[in-house]
Structure formats: structure tokens, C-alpha cells
Amino acid sequence: MQEKTQELSDAMKKKVEPKNLSKNPILGTKFTIAISSAKGGVGKSTFATNLALALKNIGCKVGLLDADIYGPSIPKMFNINDKPKSDGQKLEPIIKYDIQCMSIGFLADQQTPMIWRGPMVTSAIRTFTKKVNWKDLDFIIIDMPPGTGDTQLTFSQEIKIDGAIIVSTPQEVALLDVKRGIKMFDKLGVKILGLVDNMSFFIGDDQKKYKIFGEGGVKKTAEEFQKEFLGEIPINPEIGKCGDDGKPIVEANPNHEISKIYLDFANKIKSTYL
Hints:
Blueprint: H1 2-16, E1 29-36, H2 44-57, E2 62-66, H3 74-77, E3 94-96, E4 99-103, H4 118-130, E5 137-143, H5 150-158, E6 163-168, H6 172-187, E7 192-198, E8 202-203, E9 209-210, H7 217-224, E10 229-233, H8 237-244, H9 249-252, H10 257-273
Helix pairs in contact: 2-10, 4-5
């Protein structure tokens, strides 16, 4: 039994070792930024959509790739119900809010469960990175699925990712998974741009801050692994409402205090690469 356990452990380690493959950039884009969360439900897709819109608002040409194969959110959050067109060779991204968008959700009914095995996931990723006609982008923002599974491995091993941002909430249970995610990206040679503390607090009617999920955990984790702490995003009902309405808050209300936080993130990224 012990020998089998060791064999399994060795196999898992081997799977995440960097492959001796040349990483290919996504054609039609200058820089690829992955938005990751090691745990679901921390606001990763909300962050990805609003960051893409903030980059667009400061003059960048932006694409948004929904690589969350098992739970695509972009069709709902951008209110896109159309199917992408094809010339027989490549898919054309759907343009919404001046963002070039692609999602597996465009190709399936929103209520259809995504029951995919590993090889199917890999095939879908290759389609979206090699067979989509992305046009003259400064940045493509990739909304990764949560966790450290096949999708993350395929992207990190085959695609040139210029930087990753890890989104988390401050709870200890979420931070345990974040640490695994940091180690995965480090092992695969993907630069981590920093960590974001999402849903870090809310401001009550008495104007006091309430940190219901804990305090300082994401920043401490960033310091522990010597990564940059990019900042906090508070809980605000408008964020969820705008997403549900199909018009994220940065697009719906660019002057909102939350939109200004995303603008700061966007300016940091733009100044780093352009």
C-alpha cells in the first residue's frame, strides 16, 4: 500500500513539472494575463471582467477569454447570447463593450452542464488559443477555472503567460488553496504579478468597516511567498447587481469607488508592460 501511495505521489509531481516545450504566445495579442483563484466563489470572474473593462477604459485593446471550462460566466456577465461566427478555419470573437470575447458558454446552452474529461479540456483550450481570430490586442485577460487542474497545467505548459493574478478572500480555507496555486505557478515558471484580497470588508450604515471573512490573510500570504500584494476590493452590492444585469460595474458606472479600484489595477498592469 505504501509503495502504491509513493507511486501516485511521484506521478502527481511529474505531472506538474515544467515540460521542455516552447511556450507559444496567443496570436494577435501582445501580452497574456491569467486571472486565477485556487478556490471557487471568491469573485475571480468578476475581477477578470472588470479588469478587462478598466484596461479598455485607459486606452488598451483588450480580449477576454473565458477558460473556466466547467462554469463559464462571461456570457451572463456580458449579456452575450450570440454564437461566434466562423470562416471555416477560425472562430471570430464576439465584441461587447469594445472587448473581444470568447467563451465555451457561447457554444453551449447556459444551463447545460459541462461534463468534460481531460483530453476534451485540452482540445478546447487549444481551440480558443490557436483557432480564434484575436485582432491586434494589447492584452488578453484569461478567466481561469478555480483550482490547480488540467486547464491550468495546459495553459501554463503550452501558452506563454506573461503574468498571473491570484484572487482570494481572506478566509483561512481559501488561503490554503492559494498557497497551492502559488507553488504551482512558481513550479511552472509563470510570473505572479500579485495577490488581490477580494470581498475584504464591507462598510456598514454606521460607516465602520466590517471584515467578516477575516483580516490581513491575503497580504500575509503574499509576504510569506514574497509576492506583491495588489490591494483590497470591498464587498459592495452594486458589483453583483451589475454583473447579473450583464453590464459589469466598471462599464455601468466608471466613476464608482469600486471602478476606481479596478482602474488602479489596470494602470499598474499597463505601466508594467506597455
